[in-house]
Amino acid sequence: MALFDWMAEATGPVLNGQGVVLRPPRPSDYLAWASLREESRDYLQPWEPAWAEDDLTRAAFRRRLGVYAREMEQGTAWPLFVFDPADEALLGAITLSNIRRGVAETGTLGYWIGRPYAGRGVGTAAVRAMLAHAFGSLGLHRVEAACVPTNHASHRVLEKAGFRQEGVARAYLKINGRWADHLLFGVLQEEFDARVAHSVRVSDPS
User: Fold this and answer.
1) What CA–CA distances, in Å, run from 81 to 57, 131, 166?
2) What Pfam families does the database record attribute to this sequence (predicted)?
3) In percent, how much of the chain has pLDDT > 70?
């Protein structure tokens, strides 16, 4: 248990973007996270894998932190929470996962924004900040993303952040209990706006 506790407290990069701050989740974030997820349940569930019955419990959150810490330690994923820099309110979360090195130098992006903060540009700002980290500190060549065709809000966020739609994957992921087709998006390092990259400050307190 001591090892697990240490991993749950693991730190990582803090990204200061345009109107958002991204940092690794901590045990002290549990109440804010559970409250925002519960408040946004009906808004989020149509676009996410089915939630487990204990999904919002403290025990499940601690398990998440353990997984997140291992992924960051191994360099295979960077799961970060999204905060408002003015009042430190939790706005959502974003993850760069499935990072492949060697001949790929690629990662996959996913995110969610709580219902109260939807439509305010938070998602776009968070995606841009994560891309700056992906193409800067992490040195990736390409970032991929996917969304359900009817998730028009996510589609717009990806395009505003610089992604291009590249195709359709049939029955790509099981969303809310059913296999769903997804639109596939990608963005290359050389396509990412250098002005955005330079506006994101990255620090690592670990």
Assistant:
1) 18, 15, 28
2) Acetyltransf_3 (PF13302)
3) 91
